[in-house]
Amino acid sequence: MVKAQGFIFERIGAAAAAFTNWIMARALSRIVTHGALDVTMSNGRLLSFGDASGERVHVRFADLAAQWAFLVDADMRLGELYMDRRFLVEHGSLYDFLAMMLREAQNTGHPLVARLIDGARTRLRTFRHRNLPTRSKANVAHHYDLDGRLYELFLDTDRQYSCAYFESPDQSLDGAQLAKKRHLAAKLQIAPGNRVLDIGCGWGGLALHMAGHARGGHVLGITLSEEQHAYAMKRAAEHGESSAVEFALQDYRSLTGRFDRIVSVGMFEHVGLASYRAFFEKCAELLDDDGVIVLHTIGCSATPGFTTPWLDKYIFPGGYIPALSEIIPEIEKAGLFVTDIEVLRLHYAWTLAEWRKRFMAKWDEAAALYDERFCLMWEYYLASAEAAFRYEDLVVFQIQLTKRNDILPVTRDYIGANEKAAARRLEADLEGVVERKADHVLIG
């Protein structure tokens, strides 16, 4: 009897595996038509997809349940399977697999189950992103209050944790992040004596850069991250900018006063869809009548969608990537003018590629700070984001705003002119530092 039951269960298991393999073969054959993808199923069967062009990518599922999890809800479960080592990359890299899947998925429609799940997530996006002050602080702490040594492993020396601005594809990460700060300052038209507000100031690098343009003025940077605030305060003291640059642990909604210039980089993604109007109304209240705002945010170049659930759970809780059609109406209702919109394409893919390369090179150091599962999670985050910025509809919007349409020049020539002037000033300052060091050596 026991042998008979064992035989029956074995046959049922084999039939279930065969059926799952058939579903997987149908699903992936519709998606992957170019490239070379090998998939080892949990029962050892090897499936191959594509036209055998390019570098081969080989992945493996550790168990039958992992295969079903991937088929039913890859947006949520694939990252978890990778973190738990139930989805393994045997040849190539995780990025290679994700890039192939996103690139090839452009050529086919999603299965019915996936479309139903995606539709439900899109309809619920407003309710999921009501980021009240207490929730906003908790969401920020989840990601930005991690050990600062982690970010030192892969960011540039200024700890810019947002899309860089590559003036050429081969520019260094540090050079591209400096170019980003210079580009933003050029659009803001910062003048000596200006009062500048940096909403979501991170570790303080942008605020310190802006202070160099607003000589004799004042820069206020605000953040909800205690780790970032402490680091930014330390940097201001080390740079001797404590009087010109101030950092506050504060929610933008509680701010008072007036500012000539307002900049926000990489923070709007955390505002929450339900709070867009409050954000822009607050910016309008804080902005001087002849002031300028520049908002730098990740955006979606297609119609509104939803936050990838894995990213929402593990990396950026409460985060949301808006379409332009969700941003502009709230700007208009706040009484602000849109004076310029620039769409940065591929810049974030290049930024993430550099971050991923640096992180992978420092894997052991990251594992010593946390553990292997954390490193797998972080690799999945960086690889999936890079692939999405290359092959999906993710871009970066830089939106310039004023209260009147006569505040800024009527052509965009001033942006390039301001950037060149700032580069010349930096070069002169560096030459001055070298000369002073040489004098010190000669005299001392």
TrEMBL record:
* Keyword tags: Lipid metabolism, Methyltransferase, S-adenosyl-L-methionine, Transferase
Q: Name one GO molecular function term.
A: methyltransferase activity
Example GO biological process: methylation
User: What Pfam family is a match for this entry?
Assistant: CMAS
Gene3D superfamilies, A to Z? Vaccinia Virus protein VP39
Instruction: Cite the PANTHER family for this sequence.
Output: CYCLOPROPANE-FATTY-ACYL-PHOSPHOLIPID SYNTHASE
Q: What family is it from?
A: Belongs to the CFA/CMAS family.
Q: What is this protein called?
A: Class I SAM-dependent methyltransferase
**From which source organism is this entry?**
Rhizobium leguminosarum
